[in-house]
Amino acid sequence: MKVHFILLLILFGLVGTGCWDTSMLKDKSLIQGAGLDITEEGKIVSTLIIPTDNKNMGEELIKSSVGNTPRETRVSMDRKVQERLDASKNKIVVLSEALAREGIFPFLDIYYRDPRSALIARVAVSKMAPIDLFSIKLPGQQPMSKYITDLIESAENLSFTPQYNLQLICPMMFDPGEDFVVPLLDGGKDEIVVTGLALFDGMFMKGELNPTEGLMYTLLSNQMKREATITQKINNNNSPSPANYVTLIVRKMKRNLEITFDEQDNPYVNIHLILKVAVFEYPQDNLHKPEENIKLNNILSDKLTHLSEQVIGKMQEANCDGFGIGRRLMAFHPDKWKQYNWEEDYSNITIEPKVTVEIIRHGIIN
Amino acid sequence: MKNGTSKITVLQLFFIIVQTQIGVGVLSLPYTVFNVSGTDGWISILLSGFFIQLAIFIIWQLNRSYPNETLYDYTPRVIGKYFGSILNLLYTLFFSITAALVLVLFSNTVKTWAFPLTPSWIIIGFLMGICTYLVVADLVIMARFYVLVSIIILVFVGLVVYAHSEANYLYVFPLGKEGLINMIKGSKEAVISMLGFEMLLVIFPFIKGKDIEKLKMATYSNIFVTMIYTFIAFTSYVFFSPAEIVLVPEPVLYMMKEFSFVILERIDLIFLSFWIIAVGTSVMSYLYLASKGVAKLFSVRKESKVVPYVAFFIFIGSIIPTNHLLIDRLSEIIGNISILFIPIIPLFLLALTFWTKRKRRETG
């Protein structure tokens, strides 16, 4: 009798106690992507990509609502969908440019605070309002959330943007000595394009880079992922016009970042980037000749050094310390760091890039 | 299974101390230490390992003087029957309250991270039930269980190693920027998370082996736990930037949230379930210590008879506090009290023992 009672109790305990926190997939609406925008009156427009039903993940709905905070919009959104919204499978958070310029952390609190939310979701800034971006009619039956994530993932693989997610940008958002960038999106008629990088200063977006500059940024910050392809104009007067260009694919890279100081203790940063490249497209041929190679190496080194200067110029203008120079100063020169007001001093320091290109392969023709 | 007759081996002693030390604090340790000693917190933890070694030495010396007795047996002999009983009562209360606090912190974390709707009495009740079951059995059974579940430590370390793929080591430099004073202050916070070696006060006579072997094993377990904690804290400091870590009270779990493997997501929940075992072993140890005390106070021969009652009172005590500010305050107070109970009172007892011995020698 007593044993039976105890067994029953254990059985009840094992089976019954799960009931409090059950969360059935059929009662959930799994958010696939989220967009946040801010109106001129300061209201939040939140747009979510949710599947029409969980069994058929292919079809997606775009729902939008307005409120004072992201959480408020989420709650009012819950009144529009049958199931309960759940951010645990979220793949992407798209922020409008206007919102990004106002400082993103307060808008992302909802993602950082909730234990269920997916911190591996990618972050992007969009030139187009997220609601319009998500509503673009894609050809075929592609789900929007998968399309955007794949788009960013391929941009990461091609090194147009460093790979970050909600969690990985967070340390830099608060660190005075390091800043981050996120991909910048724009919508076309039936497509979405990665149009470059949004430069952040702390939690504020302050500037942008075009795709080529973005690629150079990724290389300079030593975050190349799989491959990187760069096309550069090296002549003016050949015809047809493609003959003026060379396309490189970076195979190996090495970056040295060195900080020295002048007499006034101002930091002087040298970035030396060594790229070992393969020629991907070069209609002028003759790459088997050593002198042609050396000539091309030199021209490309100059061109890319110039491009790097342009990138660094834009970064300093945006006050985006993407290379973590401040962090290095803090770590290795703490006494000098105390003398700086990094927020203001960063844009005035000298950062001198030097790119050395070495062609190591040229494909299967000369 | 007869109580008090079966003895554990020194290797089992190692695992008992390790499992009691690694407990509820491991999730928040990097954060609590950071609040005092910044990114040098991991050095504080190394320092606290040193302080703990001193405490272990004191406890060992004390227990060596009374080879076949537990703390509860020899206190009346050192400071007299009256005060001895009072001290035993205080120790019993201290161990019970520590157990209750561990449970409160445990249910709080589980509720915030995984089960917001499940009532805490269920969460605590389940853990307490299992603990009671094992403590009723015997110290030897407990020891075997501890050895068995020690595999989870490998899982802990394995998952934490993974965080190094996203680490920025520059965050911990320059080393020692907070200064020695803050590092020592921080080590106090760390010591609180590393309590558990005080098991030695009570289980000392139940260990097979020479005294010096016991000291050696206790030292090894201290080194082991210190290393693991230092590693975990260091990893948190290179994963989160200094400005972010103040926002994250459970950095170890938060860092797991970012991981995702091919078929596994939400590694934090997996980590949490392993952590529950570590908490369980700590609760068991404190329940055991408290039950021994109660058995002594009421002169009960078989302490397994009092275990369910002690467990029940601890259970009641642990479901009362729910406000997170109150819980923080309580853990602070108990942390401070434990400094008194663990190194200071044993040191005092040790001094008295030496003094009486010498006096006896002089008079005799």
How are the SSEs ordered, and which strands pair?
The complex is a heterodimer of chains A (366) and B (364).
Chain A: H1 2-16, E1 28-30, E2 33-38, E3 44-53, E4 56-67, H2 70-78, E5 84-86, E6 92-96, H3 97-102, H4 105-113, E7 122-126, H5 130-135, H6 144-157, H7 166-174, E8 181-187, E9 192-201, E10 204-209, H8 211-220, E11 228-233, E12 245-261, E13 267-281, H9 290-317, H10 325-332, H11 334-339, H12 342-345, E14 350-361
Parallel strand pairs in A: 1-5, 2-6, 6-7, 7-8, 13-14
Antiparallel strand pairs in A: 2-3, 3-4, 8-9, 9-10, 11-12, 12-13
Chain B: H1 10-21, H2 29-37, H3 41-65, H4 71-79, H5 81-113, H6 120-137, H7 139-149, H8 151-162, H9 179-193, H10 199-203, H11 211-239, H12 242-245, H13 251-256, H14 267-297, H15 307-319, H16 324-363
Helix pairs in contact in B: 1-7, 1-11, 1-14, 2-3, 2-9, 3-9, 3-11, 3-16, 4-5, 5-14, 5-15, 5-16, 6-14, 6-15, 7-14, 8-14, 14-15
3D structure, described in words:
The complex is a heterodimer of chains A (366) and B (364). Chain A has 366 residues and is α/β, with parallel strands linked by helices. In chain A, 34% of the residues lie in helices and 32% in strands. The longest helix of chain A has 28 residues, at 290-317. Chain A is globular. The termini of chain A are far apart. Chain B is globular. The termini of chain B are far apart. The mean pLDDT of chain B is 88. Chain B has 364 residues and is mainly α. The interface between A and B is medium-sized, with 28 and 31 residues.
